[in-house]
Amino acid sequence: MPNRVQFSEAIEPLVQFIEETPPPEILDRTLDKLRAGVPTQTMLTASALAVARSSDLPPGHHGGPLHPLAGLYAVSQLVGRLEGEQRFVPVLQHVALSNKHIHHPAMGPYSLLEFDPVDAGGVEATKAAFLAAVNRGETNRADHLFLWLWQNVPPIEAFDLLLSVAIPKNALDDHYFIFPAFTWRALETFGREYLPVLMRPAVRYVTRFPTVRAVPEIDALLEKHELLTRVTRQQSGEDETAVIGRVGEAIGRCDDYTDIPVLLAEALADGLSLEGAGEALSIGAAGLFLRSLTGNPMDVHLHTSANLRRYLIRLDGLSLRNKLLILLFWHTGPEVKSTQYRMEPAPQPDPAAVAALPYQTQDALLEAITESIYQQPPTDWSTVTNLGKMRAVPEVKGTVNLAQQYVQDGYDPQALMRRLGEIVCHDSFTEMHAFKHHQAIVEEFHATREPWRWMHLVSGAQAAAISFGKNMEIYEEALELLHT
Questions:
Q1: pLDDT tens-place string over residues 209-220
Q2: How far apart are CA 202 and CA 151, in angstroms?
Q3: Where are the domains of the chain?
Q4: pLDDT band at residue 75, thresholds of 50, 70 and 90?
Q5: Closest Cα to residue 315, out of 234, 199, 237?
Q6: d(CA 245, CA 331)
């Protein structure tokens, strides 16, 4: 009989602890281990391994290992920005989510079994066999084949192959792209020791049916502008500032998202670098997010997937074709595209509303932003029939206007980032979406040039106001335990 995947003696007991601890006991027992000296990164590694080994992927994209693995990088980065025992809270959120999925009847009991890698006749033959398995929806065979590829080609080459399947499927569900890409990014932080096993759920998810939906207009743009031969510049520079700003602002004003890849393709054909195009996309994504009327706290893919794309196009070893498709497919994701039907006119926030606010010092304004988030009206869940169609309550605009005043007054961005990081720790509802969005706005602020970088901080305040209070069960229990 096959055996389930086993890990080294150094981590196996901790993985089993997360798998076997009853959910009502997981928080206090995990906190005991953290207080006893288990490093936060070790605990997060064990949490990732446990949810990958012992929870199944349900038909949709909620549940199983998807969101715990996709959120692993963001949680680990937030831990490093928090102080004292506050840094334990994101870890507790992650462990609790993994444990919940392991014990949920829709996802468990389940075991990821040890597989023998399958060689289909060398590198090229195995790549071809993998793509054939994808076309037939043979996730099990694809898993066997990819285990061999991880061992026999450079990891970035195997990852590039996986992305060649994942990127087009973004048009079916954003998570086909997000899951493998965020997991890869986490493994750059946590090390490659567990790469083959932690990528196995992503490989199985990406290669399952349905087959990819054709997006012929993207191929037409590649051909029309000869992008595969004309795009030669990777890195951006100060000489691109005006173009980046112009394209980014044009994206942020779009009412029809199919205009976005056209703007990017034309700019690339005119000589804009890949990294410059990524920055323009980020600026545009922030502008669109600020215009969005969504009240669904999981509708943050505008920002998180733009941030992820900027990371990927910087990677050495990814093919030019995939880097171009990474940029041009951004608008196709259903959770991105849905926002175009719930938009306010540009510009947002409303300049007149912000100008009417009374002057406040930095400390007073920071507290006002915090209080406006904490005082968001509770959601009446009896009236919510479709989470994806939720509209933001008017009070969210109050938070956004205060955040815009904060950045216009030139106040300390780090202070606002720290406060938003503390607030995001409350979230037990979004399955790591709020954590990923917070990490995205922090990175995009630092990676975006003036004067557009500030849009990301305001976006962070907007997302915090939308997500706060939806479900804080884990945070509230953790807070009580931290005070004992």
A1: 877 777 899 999
A2: 17
A3: 12-103, 123-206, 216-341, 351-482
A4: very high
A5: 234
A6: 19
